[in-house]
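Reopening this one. Same input as before:
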Amino acid sequence: MQTNVFKINPEDIDMSLLKHAASILRSGGLVAFPTETVYGLGANALDAKAVEKIFTAKGRPSTNPIIVHVASVSAAQELLSQWPAVAQKLADRFWPGPLSIALPKSSHIPDIVTAGGPTVAIRIPSHPVARALLELVGVPIAAPSANLSMEISPTLAVHVLKGLDGKIDAIIDGGSCPGGIESTVITLATDPPTLLRPGLITLRALESAIGKVQSKSHSQKSQNSSEEIAQSPGMMDRHYAPRAGLEVTESNGASRVHALTSAGLRIGWLKFGDELDGKLDGEFNKGETALTINMPTVPEGYAARIYAALHEMDEFGVDHIVAELPPNTDDWVGVLDRLKRAVH
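Same output, byte for byte:
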């Protein structure tokens, strides 16, 4: 299969190219597209055979459900068996945006989308290309991250090509994804509602909108194997992982990096911030054995940079990665979750 790349400017969308991508989706094909979080690998959510292609292309366990993207609240309601007042409060506050809301599904949603579970997670993306694509295609789009299963999520089209070239029909190259990590997922099928996957919308923000929300750490365990049906994407213990092993440290990583480079290893160092936020600070072509990327010291900046930084580490061929942990506060929970799963 040849994977076509359609380059589209989010600020001046070429609708003819987007119509081509929409026609691929309507005919049962796979199209990767940018969202405000990461690139998603889309298929017609109402076509079970099309959704099955997502699992095949990614090597995704069938026990891992897929989030469904829609263009409007009314489109979301059509896919659900109920729409309580609390869902409307969340939609009013956070949609369009990086929040996925899980509720009991209607019969319109094929079981393959939910891994056979009773609920489906739905969101309205805010990225202009994703919004325009949903309007054009006229059907809900099932879309996990556009990468091989458990590997680093893509925030650039080149990241998608690295894992899925020749396995999918097309990629819409809309530039860098500004959010950088996957959406927050909350289920309203529990009382109180449960935060299943942290993201840039924090637990504190959710509770300011709807009151008490419990964290999955209080009520559920992570998914330990591909045999267990997950309540939400992103619950596998190992996820978002680079090729090189990754370890985290709560202190300055300089001594650990020095010890590893002294042992002859090529080390990637995710340093927690300085005046060069997010910039490459070294290369291997001058005999250096450590590649340093200085990570931003604000959660939104770190989240936007983390996956691209890990992709760069892989491209440079490091043997091991040392990451200095950001603060353990509510604003940082989404980033810390991704680092923890990349380590496992």
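So the earlier flakiness isn't reproducible anymore. For the record, The mean pLDDT is 90.
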